[in-house]
Amino acid sequence: MQQSIHDPDQDHRDHSPFLLLTLILVLSLILRLGIIFTIGDIALFGDELDYNRLGINIAENNGFKLYDGGQLVETSYRAPLHPLLLAGVYSIWGENYTAARVVQSLISIAAVIVFYLLGKTLFSQSAGLIAAAIIAFDPLLISFGTWLWAEPLYIFLAASSFYCLVRFSQTAHIPWLLPGGLLWGLATLTRESGQLLALLIVAWLLWVAWRKRPKPPHTYKMPRQIGRIFLPTMLFLVVMVATVAPWTYRNYRIHHAFVPVTTVSGLALWLGNNPWQDWSAVFQRYFALDTEIAREQLAISEATAYILDSQPLWLPRKVLQNWPGLLGAENFLLRHLRNGLYGPVSDNVYHIVFAISTIYYGIVGAAGIIGMWLSLKEEGRLIPGRVLFLLPLVAVLVGHTILHAHSRHRVVILPYLALFAAWTWNNRNRLPYLMRRGWVAVGAWASLAIFLVLVFPFKSAIISWLRSLFS
């Protein structure tokens, strides 16, 4: 009997990716924990205040309530899952912001593992490791992992759902859609913007099922063909809707109106579509009304009227107004430093942080855009899982062109840019050839130019000139 020959280096090769991933995770966690215990309990900012208050009220058995008009009332102003997470932390450790930030860091580290699996599954193991390293040490993602915003939880849940969807696209095993739908429902209960992305996922699922339909001579009768195409999508939707439905029912009982997740969408639309230069006029009129439903209706009505009155130049104006803030070098870490949330910071420290975060984002973003254009096909065929990674980018660009936009909204797409950037690095030797081929190369060069104009300092003169054309 022929015996297999044991390669003494095989064990090392098999375990080295695991050891490298472990090293990345440990170093990233140490960095996050070091920041948390160094800065202490910094002041809460923006949406953190609402998340924290809701978490405290839930932990104290006061319900999902916020102060409105001086009274504590049931609300649907925020999505529920992140406050429930904070409530769980506060129930165990009391109102301990440090404990909550440690939990946030652990969730962000868990997301790194999921993105490693996505990169490994769709590109290669080395691409997964590179993506994990990029995500683990991204300055902005590290910062959000030490704050109380909902983004780390949303990123983890969305990526976990995407992993299930990718496995379905590769194997056609419908059971993958059960956890995929559940996780996406939970992601939507973390950030209401998951509703828009769910529509894109539905279109993607229909496309994947159409590609996997039986080809001649194994075709089925039309009813069975239609069933095979629509069944996966319906299963995903049913599980997702069933996950969100209890919260939607609770909202209906409180407001006597259909509110899928939150009552903040109308405000986001109005903030991005109004004739005033600052938001104070919007907030003054919005909060002058007594109920959340009345506010939502007013916001949608006013924003819709503004959009209609602004035609036909509304869209180019919105792109020039929103994209610099959405995709530019400005970020929430710099904003926190300027606002003094970390205490007094010298100009030198601020400029160093600005340089590191801008260069990091610029390089990863540029490499990610190249990979986004060039990696979608393999042997002339689109890879469904890689197309799936485009959907968060599309949802953010479309959603925050229509709504208001600032740098926080791009945080959720940074890991997907990292995945594409990892592909670009692994295929760097082929880039001179690939970047000269057809319309894909043209799209890559054009997108790269737009991104670099938005990110780096010389953008101001160009953006000002373009805005003057549409003023």
Q: Could you please describe the fold and organization of this structure?
A:
This protein is an all-alpha fold. The protein has one domain (37-263, 311-470). The chain contains 22 helices and four strands. The protein has helices at residues 10-39, 47-59, 81-93, 97-122, 125-136, 139-144, 151-171, 177-188, 194-211, 222-255, 265-272, 280-286, 292-309, 314-327, 332-338, 347-374, 384-388, 390-402, 414-426, 431-434, 438-455, 459-470, and strands at 65-68, 71-74, 377-378, 381-382. The chain has a two-stranded antiparallel sheet with strand order 1-2. A two-stranded antiparallel sheet has the order 3-4. Strand 3 and strand 4 (381-382) form a beta hairpin. The longest helix has 34 residues, at 222-255. The radius of gyration is 24 Å and the shape is globular. Residues 1-12 have low confidence and may be disordered.
